[in-house]
Amino acid sequence: MKEFNVCIVGGGSTYTLGFLKSFVRLREEFPLKKLVLFDIDPERQEPIGKYGEILFSERFPELEFSYTTDINEAYTGMDFVFMQMRAGGLDMRAKDEHIPLSMGMIGQETCGAGGMAYGMRSCVDMIKAVHDIRRLAPAAWILNYSNPAAIVAEALRREFPGDKRLLNICDQPENVVRSCSRLLGCDWEDLDPVYFGLNHYGWFTNMYDMKTGKDLMPEIRRRIKENGFLPQDAEQRDQSWLDTYGMVQTIMNDFPDFLPNTYDQYYLYPEYKASHLNPDYTRADEVKEGLH
What we know:
Layout (H helix, E strand, L loop, with lengths): L3 E6 L6 H10 L6 E7 L3 H18 L4 E5 L2 H5 L4 E4 L5 H14 L9 H25 L4 E4 L4 H11 L6 E3 L3 H13 L6 E8 L2 E9 L7 H11 L11 H16 L4 E2 L3 H5 L1 H5 L9 H8 L1
Parallel strand pairs: 1-2, 1-4, 2-3, 4-5, 5-6
Antiparallel strand pairs: 7-8, 8-9
Helix pairs in contact: 1-2, 4-5, 5-6
């Protein structure tokens, strides 16, 4: 099999650690020749890079691994570029979330005023990065995970309308499917979902059993109503994520026709999400009535 050259943009992110471990685990299915981490913050990237050096020296010694702040070294000759940049860093994320919250509005990195501000920054940086990649690696596949997913995807579609190797991906719809497999006690790969909407604002209309062709959505709806909803890896999640998945039960009580993406809560219950510590906003029926 061909061995690929891969670059991870945002190499200083703590999420990069999971990438590096996955490349070791999947080395037979996705063989690598070269892996480069790229970040504009050398201090943030260095500990991740040092970890990679130790990991690969022990478990993947033949891999050519490096980390850099030079775009020429990062992009030249790449087959795949994974994009997970955070424009403005965590300092700007704090502003995106806290400023709207201070005004009683949604404070979230992909939705509302904060999401729009983050989107404007991300679009500028992403467009520049894709132009740089296309100059240095014209045939590379670009897989973008950077948020806000829908805003960035639309900006890139307009700037690069004919680029078929530029993919914008969000894992949250898949995470909902995986969580349904936990609820049903089955393998998530046996589930065939039907989904409509955007990455962060969508709904599942059906969830088919690929072995029998049966639509499992009625059973999913019943179990969520009776038992609530947990992420597949609930034991590894903090309370904020358990609360996020727990809102699925609330949403389906009010809108029972479809299974929601977890981000739908920010659109449907803005007062509740902005004022979740206020007892006046703890009941979904009160919030829904207020929205009307």
